Fold this sequence. Notes:
This protein is mostly beta strands. The strands form 14 sheets. Strands 2, 4, 7, 10, 11 and 14 form a 6-stranded mixed sheet that branches. Strands 16, 18, 21, 23, 24 and 26 form a 6-stranded mixed sheet that branches. It starts with a helix and ends with a strand. One of its GO terms (molecular function) is carbohydrate binding. Keywords: Membrane, Transmembrane, Transmembrane helix.
Amino acid sequence: MNKKRNVYALFTLIATLFAMISASLITIFAILRSHSSNNYPTFSYEQYKDCSISKKFDENEGPQLYEAEEMVLSSQIRIEGNIYASNKEALGHFIKGEMITLEVDSSSSVMAMVSLSCSYVSESGRSVDASSLFGFSFNDAAIDLGQAMIQANFNHYDFKENDLVPIHLFPGKNTLVFSSLGDYLMIDYVALRSNTSNVSSSPIGPRKVVYEECESRQYYSSYLSQLNGPVIVSDEQAREKHSAFFSNPYDSLTFYIDSSAAKDTQAGIILRLARENMQPDFEIYLNNNLIDFKDDVLTSSYQEFTLGKLSLLQGENTLTLRDINGSFYFDCFILNQDISHSPSKHQERYEAEKANLTHGGQITSYNKASSYYVVNNITIDSYVEFEITSLVEDEVHLFINLSYIGHSQASDNVFQLLLNGKEIDTSMYEITNTGGYSNYTNLYLGKIHLSIGKNTLGLFSFTGNYNLDYLDLFHDGSSQLEAEDGILDKGNYVEMNQKASHQKVVSNNINNSTLTMDLFVLDKRKVNLEMVFSYIGKDTDLSSFFTLRNNTSLININDVELKSTIRVSHYAKVVIGEINLEQGLNQIILSNLKSGLMIDQFILN
Length: 605
């Protein structure tokens, strides 16, 4: 009997222990599951809400991100421009022990997953433990990052979001601190998301670009797109020194294009081959509809191809490039490919070597020419015709840059100016000897009226003793000159920057380059000249970056202070001083330009 009681007691004890262990395991599993990243919904970047400024977190507002450049930073950490970071900026130059601190005000007590968007370029191409790159603390307590991994990236334009660890946010202020273990990362943003599937009513949305229906050719560069597979790479051949590299089937990128009206536009694309003798296959879609176009042969140099007419819808449109097979570099899409004239630009240049030549005229290289080529060997009866296509009627002032050998006389004795086949009277404008065929000057030929559509502007030669470099069209004097509308030499290039006046700035990657701003005014005047710029570096004076001339006069800028704007997205204005503008054409010339300065615009008042 006692033996049976002992057996029953043993079974009871075993059952009790089993129940306790099972309950404990269930509890532990539940806790672990609540702490697993699998229990937190995933979202696309477009669904995030940007709380970088407010520093608030609301569990009912879906995933929320906080730009790293808006956090509290240690002194040695640098904010660097990065064209594919979420706000075109990221943190770099981490030294061991440097910290970034995020203070978040939570509306409730809630568990949230911490994610880090960063670029980690690994020689091995393998992911690494997050704890080997940085430490993490929350509300002054060190947090074990456990099995959290940081994915390897292709280059520093390639950012990936990495889940780290869940934290328990308390109502009110919470402090997250990341401490660097070395200069391994570029950090874009920190994200928090609760385990609800809510989406914010004011998400970031996709990167968008705008189509201006009355403007000239519009370029949509790779880094303005949403990438799904391709990576942004540095590319000296590309228009803005970056391109998208396609290497795998079904890699794609998409532009979200806003149009104020339904509009037909001629489109183009600029591409180049990645591997010799391996032609790729690709497809292009507008609003998910396949575009039928002639697929030309790509080469190792960039080529512009015409896609034909596209019909944009009013509102949002999607333009997608998809790799089917092979590797290639994508520079940009072009809309209004056939439109050359912009009514909003102060100045436009048309190179003579791109004009149509009839009965003489030869394109010849000349290292002092506007684009290093001129048209010479112009003979009697030679005809040079420029095409100017505009979407609006417009009146502009015309200058022709030429060299001329001969006695001074009315310009209509040397050539006849024809606009759309009709003669323009230029008898009141005198042409004078320039002192040699290698000496070029600007000849003013009055105001002309452009019609909607294609306009032809031709010079029919009577004498043949002149060479042509280019023609310029000007609107009357402007109080603001956008740097990207200036004349750039080979060292300068235009790049996008969302905080610039027209989202474009001029940068340069070669020292001793030149930027020339031409300005036409109807009367002589004095104006104050200011420059809007972005610059990261030690405070210095303006003369350390360029020499400045107004027409032929050297302007003293030794005492004009140039202070760091701290960030590439921050712009400052510097007052250069008073300059004299002559009636007619004026030039503001920045020569011996050094790299490191981003110029947005010049202001004259």
